Amino acid sequence: MSVLTGFAVYFIIWWIVLFAVLPIGVRTQADEGNVTLGTTESAPLHLRMRKKLLLTSLISAALLGIYFLVTVVFGLSFDSIPRIVPDFSKQ
């Protein structure tokens, strides 16, 4: 795997993980009973983005390590998955 491929895979994994991490631990203004005038009740009270970005980066690095281990070290790919459906084109 080249450096550019590794960066591209990390970038895709990072964005997917970010959207999974964003709702973790969010307390809305309605939950706290502290609704600011002019905002919706579902707006988060404390976003804590630095913590979420750090958690996203750590999880993404771990997933990239697993991806690297499976593809480069063990040499597995989608072609390694056994074919369940019979191939009828070769008759």
Secondary structure elements and pairings:
Elements: H1 3-21, H2 29-32, H3 49-73
Helix pairs in contact: 1-3
Number of helices: 3
Estimate the helix proportion, in percent.
40-55%
Gap between N and C termini, in Å?
A: 38 Å
| Mean of pLDDT | 90
Low-confidence stretches: none
Q: Radius of gyration over alpha carbons?
A: 21 Å
Q: How many strands in all? A: 0
Basic shape: elongated
Secondary-structure element string: HHH
Structural class category:
mainly alpha
Describe the biggest sheet? none
Which strand-content bin applies to the residues? under 5%
Keywords, separated by commas or semicolons:
91 residues; elongated; mainly alpha; single chain
What would you say about this model in short?
The chain is an all-alpha fold and 91 residues long. It is 53% helix and 0% strand.
Explain what this protein looks like in three dimensions.
There is one protein chain. The mean pLDDT is 90. α1 crosses α3. Helices cover 53% and strands 0% of the residues. The longest helix is centred in the C-terminal third of the chain and has 25 residues. With 91 residues, it is mainly alpha-helical.
